[in-house]
Amino acid sequence: MTERTLTWPGGMICSAILVALVAFVLPLEPVRPVLVVPFLLICPGMALVHRFRLAEWWLEFLLAIGVSVAVDTLLATAMVYAGVWSPRLLLAVLVWLSLIAGLEELVRRLAT
Amino acid sequence: MMQPARQQRVQPPEWMRALDHALEGAWPRPDQRPPPFGIWLDDGDARAKQLDRVGRVEWAERVGRIEWARVVATAGPALLSLAAVALWAVGVGRVNLREVNDLGLASVLPPAVLAAPVMATAGFVWTLSQRPPRRSMLLLHVVALVVMLYGMNAMVEPVPGPNVVWRHAGIADHIARTGAIDPKIDAYFNWPGFFTLTAFLSGAAGLGSIMSMAAWAPVFFNLLYLGPLILLLRRATSDWRLVWLAVWLFYVTNWIHQDYLAPQALSYFLYLLILGILVGWFGTVQLDVRLAPARVLLRRPRSPARSRAVQFLLLNALRPREGRFQRAGLMVIVIVLFAAAVPSHQLTPFAILAGVTALVVFGRCSARGLPWLMAVMLVAWITFMSAGYLAGNLSELSGNVGQVDTIAAANVADRLRGSAGHQLVVQIRLAVTALLWGLAVLGWLRRRRHGQDDMTVTLLAVAPFAFLVLQPYGGELLLRVYFFALPFIAFLAAGLFLPVKEAATSWRAAGAIGLAVVVLLGGFLFARYGNERIEHFTSEELAAVRHLYEVAPRGSLLLAATPDLPWKFQDYVGYEYRTVGSLKSSRGGGNGELAEPVLGIMREHRRQGAYFIITRSNQADAEARGILPPGSLDRLEQALRRAPGVQLIYANQDARIYALRPEALR
């Protein structure tokens, strides 16, 4: 097990917890954009892309940004058309998604 | 009596070897000329032979010399770029936007700001000339260039622009507040993906408005493009120098200004990424590059050892690097990216479809079913989600199909009007475009002469031109075609200077690159920032617009001289927005007298309330672009002051607001 194999799942779990804290528990408005925007631009995509085990880390990172942007766009648009618009709900969904993906990956890595 | 020390052949100590290795230092081969800048970087064998031939003292001297040269070669270019950024930051803070004329920002830039990108270019070419060029250093230069070229607005403008960004903020604000989309309002609500994303981001992050992200958006988006650009171009060649030079040329010629906070900027990232994945993992270019060593061996006389080597290289080249699971996952990613692009922008999905179709038709992409799937997704969106808008605008949208002369007039001829300064800027834009495309044609020919296969890049460079037969796209189609083709055109242009893979860039090539980039940089500053007098807003203008929203009741008419002002960011659907230019075409006033149509429409809206705002940027817009006859806005204001019921309700240095008071008419 290398350091790198644990970096992304560990990072995703930490950032998901931090984002959940500043968005739903502690009203830390000045730090909220600094944590939430990078989280939304990287983590939802990384939850998917990291499974493909690409050879280069920067490619994983690049595709994670692309997929995150796409997933955020599609889900937000779907919410608007469905008439259930709620940025907080969508953020909660993405936090849970990233948390579960990160934990699943971490457990799998530690088990092997 | 002491015996003279016997000169012995020694190996350097381990720590020095490690240092030398870390610095990538090495020795010159006797038969090689030195590279134009920096030091020798040689292969391990030649270096070992040199080391074997020298004694301890000589070796130590050489290490000292080479280490010093290495330090200069590494630190020199980096220091150049860092000094350039510092110089730029100091110089750009002294810009006085009130002195800008119709030549744009270049007319007020201090010499330090003009010199800074040239210094960064010198550092870049210096790094490019080393063998091999350090990618981390090239990355540093590119980041410095992007900050200097695209951070100019953020540094000099007190209020973010252009005016379209404020409109986008209004649409995102409407969605964030109401969570609803009304497709009948305008085209934006039929392709709302970008606006729902920004409404979500600002809501989730606790940002009041997306305008807090607007100032540095061009820098953000251009840095975002860097990854897909490298992914895309590195599959077209195995020469990293060519890839980075193409990236450099992309940034010094991306004057289109479609990288502000807008659907086009984000969907362009998706465009590059989709093509990058397809060319990288589903294309055939990579195979050609990987087969190149085998081809070289095949040209020489055959021997059993060489045959085995060729066999090994062929098998290695033909073996897919990613497994089925990875390729399936990457295809899912492509589909998800395209699915996000479809509801986000009208034009970009068609550009993606054109590029992918060209690759598939000419056998450059193995995903043969993808164009069909993309076409179905596009048609489904148009049929079910934007049918209302298309039904109301079908004749306008399809009226120019096939009329290339009309489209060309709307994209080129109609722009060649206005003040002398503005016309010169438009001519510079045309000249920069012609120069880049000319370099690309020459580069394509030169690489072809050297046996390079650029079919994939050529297809992607040509595919966007298919749009030219469709419709004018508000007079912007040629700009968008340029934008979509730019990465590939830049690659072909770079090929003129670096046609084949070589270990080092020659003096002549380095000089030619430097000269071409400096010329293009000069063009960039005029072409990109040529509308600065029109497009920048002052704090006073913004204060006037905010006052307008404070006093104008919902439902009232907000009339502006031209569209160039920071408005529509608040209660987007709550007001009726009009401009004098649109009135002139629909209600007359062609003789230069605007008072009649303006007062007419204001009186029609007297029940709801009617307000006329005129700002500094409006006047600059009318003068520079020649939208309205000279002096007509001054005469209009004089007429408004005399008109019964019309009052000047707000005035500052840069803006005035007139209101038609219903009670005054009674």
The number of helical elements of chain A comes to 4
Count of individual beta strands of chain B: 5
- Radius of gyration of chain A equals 14 Å
Spatial sequence of strands, sheet with the most strands of chain B = 2-1-3-5-4
Strand percentage of chain A, roughly?
under 5%
- Helix vs. strand class of chain A: mainly alpha
Rg of chain B (CA only): 30 Å
Major beta sheet summary of chain B: 5 strands, mixed
Structural overview:
The complex is a heterodimer of chains A (112) and B (666). With 112 residues, chain A is mainly alpha-helical. Chain A has one domain (3-111). Chain A is 82% helix and 0% strand. Chain A has four helices and no strands. Chain A has helices at 3-25, 32-49, 57-82, 87-111. Chain B is mostly helical. The interface between A and B is large, with 41 and 41 residues.
Features:
heterodimer; A: 112 residues; mainly alpha; 4 helices; globular; B: 666 residues; Rossmann fold; 2 domains; five-stranded mixed beta sheet; 29 helices; 5 strands
Give a quick precis of the structure.
The complex is a heterodimer of chains A (112) and B (666). Chain A has helices spanning 3-25, 32-49, 57-82, 87-111.
Question: Strands, helices and their partners?
Answer:
The complex is a heterodimer of chains A (112) and B (666).
Chain A (H helix, E strand, L loop, with lengths): L2 H23 L6 H18 L7 H26 L4 H25 L1
Helix pairs in contact in A: 1-2, 1-4, 2-3, 2-4
Chain B lengths: L13 H9 L21 H10 L2 H37 L18 H18 L6 H16 L1 H5 L6 H16 L14 H13 L11 H17 L6 H14 L9 H19 L3 H15 L4 H15 L5 H18 L6 H14 L8 H15 L2 H12 L5 H8 L8 H30 L5 H8 L14 H21 L9 H23 L2 H4 L3 H13 L5 E4 L15 E4 H8 L7 H10 L5 E6 H10 L6 H11 L3 E6 L3 E6 L1 H4 L1
Parallel strand pairs in B: 1-2, 1-3
Antiparallel strand pairs in B: 3-5, 4-5
Helix pairs in contact in B: 3-4, 3-5, 4-5, 4-22, 5-9, 5-10, 7-8, 9-10, 9-11, 10-21, 11-14, 11-15, 12-13, 15-16, 19-21, 19-22, 20-21
